[in-house]
Amino acid sequence: MFNRRLIALAAFPFILEACGGGSISDSPNPLATSDQLAAEKLAIAVVEEPAVVAAKATLKANWLAAARATGGVSDEALTNLDEAVDESVFAFALSLASGDANDPKVVSFLAAPHNWYGMNVPGSRTTFDNPDTIYRKIPVDPALSYVLAGTVHAQKPVDFNFSLYSSTSATLSNLAGDQLAPQADGSFVINASSLSSGGSNQIQLVSEAASIFVRDTINEWGVQQFNSLAIKRTPSVSTQPQTADALATTLAATLQTPAAAAPFIAYNALGYAQPVNTLPAPSLGGTGGRLANQAASYAAFQLADDEALVLNVNLGGAKYFIAPAYGRWTITTDYINHTQTLNNAQAVPNPDGTYTFVISPKDPSVYNWVDTAGLHQGFLNPRWQGLPTTPASVGPSATVKVVKLGDLQTVLPTTTKYVTATERQAQLAARAASYASRYAP
Fold this sequence. Notes:
alpha+beta, Jelly Rolls, seven-stranded antiparallel sheet, five-stranded antiparallel sheet, disordered N terminus, DUF1214 domain-containing protein
């Protein structure tokens, strides 16, 4: 305990800076830190290096082979393959640009393309990104000690977690937001080392530890705010700045290994583990990088222009639920201007607290429309977070049924909310406006 107090006191100036909103002064945006902007700038340079551009071909070929070996690939799906590969590669680059265990940085990724601070930042979506969640991966070494400092703002996320991962993204431990003990002003300090003090705000770095994966999830865009977060190694050491050349060499080599395509291959196989347009019962995560205390299900869909999937959902006591539609390459396309994902705050519940969604490439005039953004082939990944400690009498569940668009009214609840074309445009305009603050300077 004494050693942990010394660590926290030594880091106190850093804690004050981090809790004040990171390294970008005059910015209320918790994502707009100097480390984030520097990492994005560096990653943009890295992915433009010739060696990385050439290595993308290997990743693309491995994805394509895996897809063709399972559910097949439509001509439509091929049209956004390059975009998906580009975003996955940029995610790799951002991960490298977040430093190493000697000098880690807090950098968010798995995000849509955005423009801020004079930069056009490419998207970094890969393997079932969630637009409600900000993901931050922090490299750590169990032989070293760190202090994470941050702030839980007044309009806090509906759910947030600090997961300790091995080098293969297996969950070693998870510190959930409701286990965190912040100060009255929302500030918090988490000590991360091989030591254990028995307190609540700690992450014990066991021998297999390789990274801390942070997820902040909101379901009210433009209202709830992501947590501020920064990290410092204690004691700090002098390190050389990373260069685009060095990172490009590492990234190009990585992209040509089987491990680079492994997440896509695994989730692609999981989505096609049963017939299309069916949905297995949700299961708790913890493997393959999944959130340990999250329930989720995976399925592939294949729909004609005149077809839809009706998705009926029971929250099972969860604070958060999302119904997302993905393209063939396991990423979203345009969730800002389309209702490609809907969470439990964005959708209208049934009178009994359940939810009914209509998933289709064409507008069914239903408020709870999960728009595939015109795609006829892709994946579903409904997920439940903030599950009760004591399981509810009826746990999380979901069912899907293929229906002709013309027959929807015969299967939807009588209380279903329908919309006109004008009302749909209003819904979409409100959605885009609520997202706009995420990357506002």
